[in-house]
C-alpha cells in the first residue's frame, strides 16, 4: 500500500492509494504517477467544500458554569429584518429569516456577541417538484401579516422581538412575531 498526506490550510487528511492505479472523475484508469496527482486535486477540492476542523486532545474537561443571558430587556423591541437565507437540511428545504443586530454584548467575553432574532420556516415540495409554501402554513400566514407575497420581500420589514423556548434544550432564543 502506498499513501500520502494531503495538507490543507487547517487540517491533515490521509489518503491511501490501493494498488498501482486510481480512477479520475470520468472513470478512466490512471497510471500510478498520475494517480497521486489526480487524487490530491480531487481531495483538495473536497476539503475546500467541507468545513475545516482540527482534531484536538483536551486533558482537563468537565462541567463549567456558563454566564446566563437575560433576554428580558430585548422583548418588545422593534427590529428590521436584515437577512433571508435559503437552506437544505436533513428534513428538506427551509428559510431562515434574521433581524439586524439587536445588541452587541462584550461584557465577560473574548469576542463580542451579536444578538439577532431569527425564525426558521420550512418549505414543502408539491407533486410537480416545485418548492414553496401553503397559504395556511406558518410562512404563508407570516407573509400575509407583513403584506408581502414572497419571503425575499421581508428584508426591511419591522418585527417585534419576543422569546421562544426550545423545550429540548431548555433555553430561550430571540424570535419575533
Question: How would you describe this structure to a colleague?
Answer:
This protein has 177 residues and is α+β, with helices and mostly antiparallel strands. The chain has two domains: 48 residues, no CATH class; 105 residues, no CATH class. Strand 3 and strand 4 form a beta hairpin. It is globular. The N terminus is likely disordered.
List the main descriptive attributes of the protein structure presented here.
177 residues; alpha+beta; 2 domains; five-stranded antiparallel sheet; two-stranded antiparallel ribbon; 2 helices; 13 strands; 15% helix; disordered N terminus
Helix and strand layout, with pairings?
Layout: E1 2-7, E2 12-17, E3 22-23, E4 29-30, H1 32-49, E5 78-89, E6 92-99, E7 103-105, E8 113-115, E9 118-122, E10 124-125, E11 131-132, H2 138-146, E12 158-166, E13 171-176
Antiparallel strand pairs: 1-2, 3-4, 5-6, 5-12, 6-9, 7-8, 10-11, 12-13
Number of individual domains: 2
Low-confidence stretches: 1-35
Radius of gyration, Cα only, in angstroms? 24 Å
What is the topology, as strand order, of the major beta sheet?
9-6-5-12-13
* Helix vs. strand class: alpha+beta
Main sheet specs: 5 strands, antiparallel
Residue share in helices?
Answer: 10-25%
What is the terminal separation in angstroms? 60 Å
H/E element order: EEEEHEEEEEEEHEE
Give a brief rundown of this model.
By secondary structure, the protein is an alpha+beta fold. The chain has 2 helices and 13 strands; from the N terminus they run ββββαβββββββαββ. A 5-stranded antiparallel beta sheet has the order 9-6-5-12-13, with no helix packed on it. The chain has a two-stranded antiparallel ribbon with strand order 1-2. The chain has a two-stranded antiparallel ribbon with strand order 3-4.
Amino acid at each position: 500500500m502506498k499513501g500520502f498526506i494531503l495538507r490543507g490550510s487547517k487540517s491533515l487528511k490521509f489518503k491511501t492509494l490501493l494498488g498501482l492505479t486510481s480512477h479520475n472523475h470520468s472513470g478512466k484508469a490512471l497510471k500510478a504517477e498520475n494517480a497521486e496527482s489526480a487524487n490530491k486535486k480531487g481531495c483538495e477540492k473536497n476539503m475546500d467544500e467541507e468545513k475545516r476542523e482540527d482534531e484536538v486532545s483536551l486533558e482537563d474537561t468537565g462541567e463549567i458554569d456558563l454566564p446566563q443571558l437575560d433576554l428580558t430587556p430585548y422583548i418588545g423591541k422593534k427590529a428590521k429584518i436584515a437577512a433571508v437565507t435559503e437552506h437544505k437540511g436533513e428534513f428538506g428545504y427551509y428559510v431562515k429569516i434574521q433581524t439586524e443586530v439587536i445588541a452587541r454584548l462584550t461584557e465577560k467575553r473574548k469576542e463580542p456577541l451579536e444578538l439577532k432574532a431569527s425564525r426558521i420556516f420550512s418549505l414543502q415540495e408539491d407533486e410537480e417538484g416545485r418548492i414553496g409554501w401553503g397559504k395556511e402554513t406558518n410562512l404563508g400566514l407570516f407573509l400575509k401579516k407583513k403584506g408581502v407575497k414572497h419571503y425575499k420581500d421581508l428584508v426591511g420589514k419591522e418585527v417585534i422581538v419576543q422569546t421562544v423556548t426550545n423545550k429540548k434544550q431548555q433555553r430561550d432564543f430571540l424570535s419575533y412575531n
